[in-house]
Amino acid sequence: MRQVIAITHVTLDGIMQAPGGPEEDPTGDFRQGGWIAPFFDEALDEALGEIMSGEFDLLLGRRTYEIFAAYWPYAGDHPIARAFNKAAKYVITNSLDSFDWVNTHPLRGDAVENIRKLKATDGPALHVWGSSELLQALIAADLVDEFHIWIFPLVLGKGKRLFENGVPPRGLTLVESRSAPKGVLLNTYRPAGPLPEASLAPDTPSEAELARRRKLAAEEGQG
Is the pLDDT reported for residue 199 higher than 90? Predict the structure, then answer.
C-alpha cells in the first residue's frame, strides 16, 4: 500500500495558490504569486533536499502538472529537476491527450477510484504538490496519509486554500515541527480521524446563556 503525502506551502490564512511566481496560477484574479520567495533560506533548501533525496512518484492535478511540465524538464542539472524527471508522474486529467514529460501516466475517469487503485499497488510514496482541486477530493475521501505543511508568516486574504469550505471535519496529529530562521514553520501532520464530541461549556447553561441562544437562533432565522 502506497502512502499519499501532500506537500504544501501555505500562508497563515491557508492560501496555497501560486507560491512560486506571478504567472504560475493567476486564476481568480490572483495577483500575489511568488509569495514564498522572500522567505527562502538554507534551512528550506535543506528540507527540500531531504524530500528530493528519497524515492517517490508524483500525483498531480492537471493544472499543476502543466506548470511543472513546462518548467522542470528544462531546468538543467538541478536537484529538484533530477528527482521530478526521474519520478513517475500520475496526472488526473480527462482533457490532456499528449504528454511530453518523460514517464507520465494519465489517470482518466473517476479520480478517487483511480487513486484508491494506485495506492493499492507496489511502489514508492505518492507526493502531491500544489493540485489544490485534487487535494479537496483526496481530503474528502480520507486518502491523504500525511501532510507536510510549510506555513509562511504572511496573509494574502484571497486565493485557493489547502482546506476549502466543505472538507469533512477531521483531527490531525502533529508528528514533527521545525522552524526556519525567517519564520517558516515546517510541520508534519497525520490524520487522526473524526473529531470527538467535546465541549468546554457547562452542563447546565445559565438563563442568560439560554436567552442568548434564543436570540441568535432568531437572528439566523431572519437571514
Answer: no
